[in-house]
Amino acid sequence: MRRLFAGTAGLLTCTVALLAACSSGSHEPLAVTARLGGAGVRGVPAAQLQELRLGSETRAAVCVPPDTTLSLEVEARVSRLLASVGAEKPASAAPSASFSIVEKTSGESRLLLETGLSGDRQGWRDHAIDLAPAAGPRHFELRTRATTEGAGKLCWGAVRFLGTAPAALAAAPNVLLLSLDTLGASYLGGFGHVRGVSPRIDALLDESFSFRRAYTQYPGTLVAHTSLFTGLHPVNHGRYDRSFELRGSFAGELARQGYLSAAFTENANVGSAFGFAAGFDRWDDGEGRGFEAVSGNASTTFANAEAWLAGPARDTRFFLFVHTYEVHSPYAPPAEDVGIADALTPGDARTFPPKDLSVAILRHNQGLAAVPERDAQRFRALYTAEIHHLDRVVGRFLDRLEALGLADDTLLIVTSDHGEQFGEEGKLGHGQTLHNRVLHVPLGFRWPGRVQPGRHDAPVGLVDVVPTLFDLVGFPGPAGRDGRSLAPLLRGEATQLPPRPAFAELQRDRGECQAWPGPGRCWLGRYAVLTDRYKYVSSEFPAWERLYDLEHDPGEAHDVKDERPQELARHRALLEGYRSQASANAPAADDAALDALTRDRLEALGYIE
Fold first, then answer.
1. Model-level pTM?
2. Percent of the chain having pLDDT more than 90?
3. CA-to-CA distance for 264 and 301, rounded, in angstroms?
């Protein structure tokens, strides 16, 4: 899926964005990138900058007809060039083509790159070129040539010139954001679950400033990650369905500040098809189709991220986003971790075919065929074993970050988009209720020497991540965010912040929506307000409201609205204030057409049939 960026007809303005860099444990100068789409690279005709996915990878690309030369003038001092090459596949046959990069100096030409692209090799091919020292502006030509008929357009992706960085970026850290999909905080050993299941993630949170009561804004991947990326509540970003539009992502802001960025994900609801790649230099949706792409794939996803850190990201200031569905259903831990599940359910060593599991959970949540308690407990045990496997993968990744000399100069943020239910309120999975089993997520910020380890117990949300990130790195972040910066706590400037509730929503529930009696599409209108002690939940369809005293009832078993009328009124008012923001934000359009790869993975995860 690609989207064209606006531009003047017949003229592509190529510009420079500044990029600070840290070299792996050394004191070499930081680096900066001159990038197409920023400020400082001039002279490329044809406004064709676009996000282009080839295979499973997306690049910010310029695509041109064969036999086209793009002439660049780069103002910054540069010493290295990164570029990807690929081809839009025509309807008839895959093309063969050649790409070359030439530097022109004082009437002389020096060939920097000459590479081919054959018809049997699809996708992006990445190149890194060391440049000879030179002062002042430099001139480059990017040339394409087709070697077969009907080649279609040939594409240059993620073209970046590395050079000397301005001093202003020297104090900024690298930024690493880990999203461990479906990892509920209450299933970690550090939050009281089985000790020894998640030792590396527990240790990471202990080394971080962590928030013991962090909540997602929506118990579903797409909407939750949209809030994470934008710092906006769902009521304000309005992106409840799989529309392609994603407005206000923080990745673009980091790019404008100079960060070289990449993402390694497993597609489905966090894929380039839904606009998450906007602002990234490189976005990798991961290999494989269907179940193989989303089950037990964390090792590959994190290995790809490690390779990028050791390669293109070396000696640069980077932003890296890593997302995995490892612990998401269908709960299929690798053989070496199944023993964890067997120990939790003695005498029960069953596994469940992915499709059968997905159907059983959906029918249970519809009220058509209840899953036996014994099965639900086995699901929970397998999920726990998945967490143990993911913990080892994350541990190896953290070790590699340390070995590369990057750990001390990197702001690492670890979180999740939601948790999982195994019978609470009679539901399985997530996206069914606003119970804290699915709303409560881990959240920690680690930056050695700059963020002191600590804990905080007041409610916070995923919407607070973006404002906190920009406050810590020292650059102005996107304006008009719903979240607030938590950085005063992390820097030790405050021990408390003014009290503020956390909000969450659930607008569609697959189980209930299968039997939706109302007109039009299913729209439940469910909201949660979490304050220091209480949690208020309301529903429009069917109409009900509940108030829980979390201090005495953390399992949300006893409704105290009749016993606490003043708290009920206060929380109603908080919700009314939250919902009043929604007037200008109509829900997004329903599910758009999906490409085959994305549809396969959504089906494997149980999101569609």
1. 0.88
2. 55
3. 6
- 103: β partners: 110, 140
Q: Where are the alpha helices (DSSP H) in 423-480?
A: 436-439, 465-473
Look-up of token digits 């503020």? 500
CA nearest to 205, candidates 455, 419, 444, 449: 444
Summarize pLDDT for 192-212 with one digit per residue, the tens.
Answer: 888 899 999 999 999 999 999
The mean pLDDT of 37-61, rounded to a whole number, is 72
At residue 600 the predicted structure's pLDDT band, cuts being 50, 70 and 90, is: low
Mean pLDDT of all residues belonging to the chain: 84
| CA 552 remoteness from chain centre | 35
**Eight-state DSSP code of residue 270:** B
Q: Which residues contact 568 (CB under 8 A, 6 or more apart)?
A: 536, 545, 547, 561
pLDDT of residue 516 exceeding 90, the answer is no
Counting Cα atoms < 13 Å in the Cβ hemisphere of 455 gives 10
Is it true that 174-329+384-497 and 524-584 share their CATH fold? no
Give the list of residues 6+ apart from residue 592 with CB closer than 8 angstroms, or none: 242, 243, 244
pLDDT of residue 321: 96
Q: Which of 304, 248, 215, 262 is nearest to 470 (CA)?
A: 248
Q: Rounded to an integer, what distance in angstroms lies between the CA atom of residue 63 and that of residue 80?
A: 22
What is the separation of C-alpha 155 from the centre of its chain, rounded to a whole number of angstroms?
26
Contact criterion met (CB below 8 Å) for 87 and 103: no
Asked if 509 and 292 count as a contact pair (C-beta separation under 8 A), the reply is: no
Cis peptide before 542 (omega within 30 of 0): yes
Domain 174-329+384-497 is found in CATH 3.30.70.2200: no
Q: What is the Cα–Cα distance from 506 to 528, expressed in whole angstroms? A: 9
Fold of 11-169: Jelly Rolls (2.60.120)
Tokens standing for residue 474: 């020292």
Q: Report residue 86 as tokens.
A: 């690929």
- Sign of the C-alpha dihedral, residues 538, 543, 547, 550? negative
- For domain 524-584, which CATH number applies: 3.40.630.10, 3.90.79.10, 3.40.50.970, 3.30.1120.10? 3.30.1120.10
Whether the pLDDT of residue 46 is over 80: the answer is no
Token pair belonging to 75: 């103002």
What is the C-alpha to C-alpha distance for residues 524 and 120, in angstroms, rounded to an integer?
49
Residue 521 burial (CB < 10 Å; 0-12/13-18/19+)? exposed
Domain ranges in the chain are: 11-169, 174-329+384-497, 524-584
**Distance between CA atoms of residues 4 and 8, nearest Å:** 12
566-570 average pLDDT score: 97
Q: Do residues 325 and 291 lie in contact, with contact meaning Cβ atoms separated by under 8 Å? A: no
Mean pLDDT computed over 440-449:
97
